[in-house]
Amino acid sequence: MGNHTAVSIFILWGFSSFSDLQSLLFVVILFSHMTILTANVSIMGAIKLSHNLHTPMYFFLCGLSFSETCTTVVVMPRMLVDLLSESKTISLPECATQMFSFLGFASNNRFIMAAMSYVRYTAIHSPLQYHPLMTRKICLQKMMASWMVGFLLSLCITITVFNLSFCDLNTIRHYFSPVVSLACNYTSDYEMAIFVLSACVLMGSFILIMISFVFIVFIVTKMPSAKRRFKAFSACSSHLTVVSIHYGFACFVYLRPKNSNSFHEDMLTAVTYTILTPLLNPIVYGLRNKEMQIALRKTQGNVIGVF
């Protein structure tokens, strides 16, 4: 530790770099937050109130919408507070809690998408056994497993990160910057542990999704009827679109080359990623799914009728 002095408060520097855009950023983020909440709550309400949507796929879609809503609630209110506050600080416990919650919900989202991919595979591979294989109890078990694995990995990452000592340079450049970069005892062992845990979240869920889709493509290409092939691919299109955009955007944010002069670009990209991905779910499923469109219109009509 040498002459380092341990700190317990971080300074959130990110939005201070956009002093001329504080008001505009506040309006944009607030509007985005309300839109995300409204869109995802509408999806959950439509699935709950429409009996024809009480199927395994829509059960997981409802769970994904709820998890995406929680993800934004963890991040965006804090962003709004920082835009209005003169003192842009966050305590060590608050930072750890936010990291645990955000990583937990984000990991959960990915494992739910993996479960949805398996549901699609089961529906195409064994249509006659689909309902016996995907009972409500089994779906609930898969949903609980997604939550447990997601938050367990998040807990391991958070404990590993905050087992480090943070000294002197305690300024967080933006909320997506690695907190580990502020540690004064960050060794290769810690780096490897965090890398392995992060890989379990990102690559683990992605591999599960790709395995399901590879088997789906293999089965569909062997179907003798072109009409059946088109119907099968159409059934998977919404989910495949969400997965492609979600992981494609994640790769752009996390894997593209960084340089020391790209702070503003990294900050805006990270904020955009946080705002756009929770909107993917309701937009794609709302625009590309006729059943969901009908259910949303009925739900909207019932709400208007109440008032």
Automatic annotation (TrEMBL):
<protein>
    <recommendedName>
        <fullName>G-protein coupled receptors family 1 profile domain-containing protein</fullName>
    </recommendedName>
</protein>
<feature type="transmembrane region" description="Helical">
    <location>
        <begin position="232"/>
        <end position="255"/>
    </location>
</feature>
<keyword id="KW-0812">Transmembrane</keyword>
<dbReference type="GO" id="GO:0004984">
    <property type="term" value="F:olfactory receptor activity"/>
</dbReference>
<feature type="domain" description="G-protein coupled receptors family 1 profile">
    <location>
        <begin position="39"/>
        <end position="285"/>
    </location>
</feature>
<keyword id="KW-0716">Sensory transduction</keyword>
<feature type="transmembrane region" description="Helical">
    <location>
        <begin position="24"/>
        <end position="46"/>
    </location>
</feature>
<keyword id="KW-0552">Olfaction</keyword>
<feature type="transmembrane region" description="Helical">
    <location>
        <begin position="192"/>
        <end position="220"/>
    </location>
</feature>
<feature type="transmembrane region" description="Helical">
    <location>
        <begin position="58"/>
        <end position="80"/>
    </location>
</feature>
<dbReference type="InterPro" id="IPR000725">
    <property type="entry name" value="Olfact_rcpt"/>
</dbReference>
<feature type="transmembrane region" description="Helical">
    <location>
        <begin position="267"/>
        <end position="287"/>
    </location>
</feature>
<feature type="transmembrane region" description="Helical">
    <location>
        <begin position="100"/>
        <end position="123"/>
    </location>
</feature>
<keyword id="KW-1133">Transmembrane helix</keyword>
<keyword id="KW-0325">Glycoprotein</keyword>
<dbReference type="Pfam" id="PF13853">
    <property type="entry name" value="7tm_4"/>
</dbReference>
<keyword id="KW-0297">G-protein coupled receptor</keyword>
<keyword id="KW-0675">Receptor</keyword>
<keyword id="KW-0807">Transducer</keyword>
<comment type="function">
    <text>Odorant receptor.</text>
</comment>
<keyword id="KW-1003">Cell membrane</keyword>
<feature type="transmembrane region" description="Helical">
    <location>
        <begin position="144"/>
        <end position="166"/>
    </location>
</feature>
<dbReference type="GO" id="GO:0005886">
    <property type="term" value="C:plasma membrane"/>
</dbReference>
<dbReference type="InterPro" id="IPR017452">
    <property type="entry name" value="GPCR_Rhodpsn_7TM"/>
</dbReference>
<dbReference type="GO" id="GO:0004930">
    <property type="term" value="F:G protein-coupled receptor activity"/>
</dbReference>
<keyword id="KW-0472">Membrane</keyword>
